[in-house]
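Notes from the 1:1 (GR / supervisor)

We went over the backlog. Supervisor wanted to see one worked example end to end before approving the batch request, so GR pasted a single chain during the call. The sequence is below; no edits were made to it. Supervisor asked that the structure be written out right there so they could see what the output format looks like.
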Amino acid sequence: MTTRARVLWVLSILAAVIPTVATPMVRAEPNGGTTAVNSVVLFVDDLGWADLAYRLSDLPTPNIDRLRAEGMTFVNAYAASPTCSPSRATMLTGRSAARLRLARHIPHNATGAFHTIESDPARFPSRNWLPLEERTFAEALRDRGYRTAFVGKWHLGPEAYFPIHQGFDEQHGVTDRGQPRSYYPSFFGPDVETYADGEVGAYLTDRMTDDAIGFLERQSEATPFHLSVFYYAVHTPHVGRRDLVARLAESTDLEGAELEHAAMLLAVDESVGRARSVLERKGLSQDTLLLFVGDQGGPFDNSPLRGQKMGGTALYEGGSRVPFVAVWPGHIPGGTVVAAPGTTEDVFPTLVEASGVNDSDGGEVDGESLMPLLTGSGSLRRDQVVLYRSYESRYAAIRVGDWKLIAYRDGRSELYDLGADPSESEDVGDAHSATRRDLIDRLVAWERRMGVEAFTPPFDR
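Structure output shown during the call:
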């Protein structure tokens, strides 16, 4: 894709409007009740916003492309906390990482309920597991009569806090690790039992997909179900499936880690296609809402967006904006694009509302159901999006309209106009001091609501 074509594509995305979708997601029954909608969440680790749209745009990913062609794409979706563990926790609970006190990834073999790190000037105490009293969407759905299954990367604490203790009837491929040792056996090393029976030549993404499909094969129209597949891919180590690496080596100029990464993405694409084929063959597609989401920005170049997952740039658009597509055949018109900002916190209330469970059944959540957009019945109520993490001085971001402010623990801030400057290349805080003050005030008020005001710096306004 040429530079001019990329710029035009960006402009078309920023100018996108939300179309009307007339079909309601929850269908009324004669008895006045509702028919619960099945749901599948495909959560891809370290899949950058630019991986699908730019840098790897020439890769043959027909199944992911089909999601976008047949579903609704949220082009301004964010990881509410762009880091492995908090990103998962915000999705599962609908609650902010600040409210959860889980603002960093959970270290392996961590001791005690909380940890701090030297690089964080606030010494924010971040949890070492997701507390069992936190209500997940799996618990809400299981209470509704759903069969639930989890496959893949949990990264929310040791075995006592695994998915089967958080509302999932089944779990497969789960460890307390944030990444595998390799995507070939032994996947997690000799001291981990998970998938220890892996056959020589087996690939981790394929093994996970086998388990996901096994669950789908056992489902029927009689009982609603939910399936979460949290891929380890495309997180490091960058080890692509060997046949796909060989294919790409012959057909592209990619090499090294980028070649392996691309092959990993092709394996995920195959996984998406396999899962959807089962739903279609069993006649379950039109009764199933599928969400395809990235967990944080990718580790490579996310141009034209600034930033990536590492290097203290995670709160820029390249580190926090993620792919997010909703597919529901026969209900959501294909190829629709939504410009309204959303976050991973929105998954919980969306799945809960789709199941017919009253919002209050989920407790206090910070996300907002995407149902009004998916059904074409209205717009979102939110007027701001807040991102929060705690590794270094740069710790929070708040977006209101096209304005985005990034806050530092030492009281500094940066202000960007994303409408005019999606690459966040020019800090315009001095030229728009009133806007900067307003966003700082909003952020401070939000931190008070989250109960983390003790870590709020004295901002230099």
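Supervisor's comment: The chain has two domains: 34-379, 393-455.
Batch request approved.
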